[in-house]
Each structure stands twice: as structure tokens, then as C-alpha cells.
Design goal:
With 306 residues, the protein is α/β, with parallel strands linked by helices. It has ten helices and 14 strands.
Length: 306
């Protein structure tokens, strides 16, 4: 495993982390505590030290699984979670952005995660009208001073949200989380330059493009009714699958696992600190971790390898 400095937080994080939306049960599978224990134990064995979660992944369900799994080794992990939404059911959320609501979310997250502090507490894909609330950031700063939060972050909803990215230093946020992958390079245009200018750590979420870049799905693939990908526009989904097939044929070197290649591809951008792919099982954790070992020099196109 390789490690990088997470911007001006100074935290040393593994270049591959663990995304945990799937633990909330919205990716076609429900989890047991034993399964989560095995996944996170394997992640630790590979050298992964960052876990990203959110309060709305099953009404603190994902956080609860994580808290129980790492309660005896909290000091070995960098925990990132988020705020701003209330889980009401499968893929059903409500906005909860008032300082009072967010403070309750923080306390509930601390309880679920069985910890006294959160390493990175992130504004979760909210609109600018919620972001531009000085009272919210004042309350959060007080929680930083109290030691309940080590660092603030912003998980931008639009991967071209320059308003929130540019304001990061003003609100004392030191980390930006953004959708970035081979199918979606929009952050390269404006968000990444702003992050580099401010020395912000960057967590690249959805680095496998919701699994499309795993290489497992062919054009025409169908997904289970309770899988979040089943909600994607059918025509756009097919276009992505066709493009992935082309990328696999023209850009991924022979014999290289496409998912590992896709993660390594993200990590070659100088602004990116860490990718946070989800993982359904132990095998996927191990595959994700191997991306750190790929020696790749990424040019615009085509790909060049050492």
C-alpha cells in the first residue's frame, strides 16, 4: 500500500480507501456484522486505513457496522463520515441542514461509530443555499474546537461545483470529495485546480463509475430491481457499457484487471489523494488494494505504462 498526505489536514492516508454505501443495503445486498468485520479486517491487512461512510447509509446502519467492527482498533483508522440528510427508506432521503439538526446527526454518528471523534466530517452533497449558512459552519467550528471533529470536508454534489470548492478554506474545510473516474473527468477542468491551489485533500468517489468500470458488465447488462444502478436511465446506461467495452479494448493493457486499472487511472492525477471504491466482499477489497501497486504513467490518451 502507498500513502499520501491528505492536503493540509496532514493526515497520512492510504491511496485506496473503503467506500461503505453498500453496507446500508442499497446496492442489491444486505450485510451482516460478520461480513463487515471480514471486509474491514481484510482492508486493514492490505494497508488500507481510510473508511468513508455517511449518516444516511441506512439511517446510521453503515456507521453502526463500522463502529462495531473497529471498536478495539479505532486508533488505526481514519474515519470520514457525512451530514445533511435523513434516511427514510430505500433511496429515500430528506434534507436536514439546520445547525440543530446537523449537531444531532453528529452526536448520532459518534454513537453509531463508537468513537469520541470523527477524523473528517463532510458536508454531504447539499445545495449552495444550505452551504451558505454561516451559522452552520460556526457550529461545526465549535465542534472542531471541542475535539469531536478533527477536520471538516465537503462532498460536492455536482462534480463542477466551484462555488463550494473555492469556499473550502473560508469555512475551514480541508478535504473535497468528488465524483471522478475515467467516464467522468469534469473535475479536472475547475475543481481540481482549486483544490491544488488551496492544498485540499481530494477523495475520489465512484472511481469505478458505479461498477461500470469493473469490467464485469457487458452491453445489454441488467441489474436487480433493488440495485441503485437500476434507476439509471436505460439509454445512458447502455451508452456507458458500450464506452467501457471500448476502453477495455483500447486502453487497458492485456492481462490487467480493469477495476484495478480504473482506480490506478484516478490516482495518477496529481490532485487526487485517495480513491474510495465500494466493495461487496473480501475479494473486491483485495482487488481494490492491488491498484496501489500498478506502476502507471497516465497521459491524456492513450495510457502509457512503466
Amino acid at each position: 500500500m502507498k500513502y499520501r498526505r491528505l492536503g493540509k489536514t496532514g493526515l497520512k492516508v492510504s491511496v485506496v480507501g473503503v467506500g461503505t454505501w453498500q453496507f446500508g443495503g442499497e446496492w442489491g445486498k444486505s450485510y451482516t456484522q460478520e461480513e463487515v468485520d471480514r471486509i474491514l479486517a481484510t482492508a486493514k491487512e492490505t494497508g488500507i486505513n481510510l473508511i468513508d461512510t455517511a449518516e444516511c447509509y441506512g439511517d446510521h446502519l453503515s456507521e453502526s457496522f463500522i463502529g462495531k467492527a473497529i471498536q478495539n482498533e479505532r486508533q488505526d483508522w481514519i474515519l470520514a463520515t457525512k451530514f445533511g440528510h435523513k434516511f427514510h427508506g430505500h433511496l429515500d432521503r430528506a434534507n436536514h441542514w439546520s445547525p440543530k439538526d446537523v449537531l444531532k446527526q453528529l452526536e448520532d454518528s459518534l454513537q453509531a461509530l463508537r468513537t469520541d471523534y470523527i477524523d473528517i466530517y463532510q458536508f454531504h452533497s447539499g445545495g449552495d443555499e444550505f452551504f451558505d449558512n454561516d451559522d452552520l459552519w460556526t457550529m461545526l467550528d465549535k465542534q472542531v474546537q471541542a475535539g469531536k471533529i478533527r477536520h471538516l470536508g465537503i462532498s460536492i454534489g455536482s462534480n463542477d461545483n466551484l462555488h463550494q470548492t473555492d469556499a473550502a478554506s473560508r469555512v475551514n474545510a480541508k478535504v473535497i470529495q468528488v465524483v471522478y473516474n475515467r467516464l467522468d473527468r469534469k473535475p479536472e477542468e475547475r475543481v481540481f485546480p482549486s483544490c491544488e491551489k488551496q492544498d485540499l485533500g481530494v477523495l475520489a468517489r465512484v472511481p469505478l463509475a458505479s461498477g461500470y468500470l469493473s469490467g464485469k458488465y457487458k452491453p445489454g447488462a441488467e441489474f436487480e430491481a433493488n440495485d441503485v444502478r437500476n434507476r439509471h436511465d436505460r439509454e445512458q446506461r447502455e451508452e456507458k457499457l458500450q464506452l467501457v467495452e471500448k476502453i477495455k479494448r483500447t486502453e487497458v493493457p492485456e492481462g490487467v484487471n480493469m477495476a484495478e486499472w480504473a482506480l490506478a487511472w484516478c490516482l495518477q492525477h496529481p490532485a487526487v489523494t485517495c480513491v474510495i471504491p465500494g466493495c461487496k466482499d473480501v475479494d473486491q477489497v483485495q482487488s481494490n488494494a492491488r491498484a496501489a501497486d500498478l506502476e502507471m504513467v497516465r497521459e491524456d490518451h492513450p495510457q502509457a505504462w512503466k
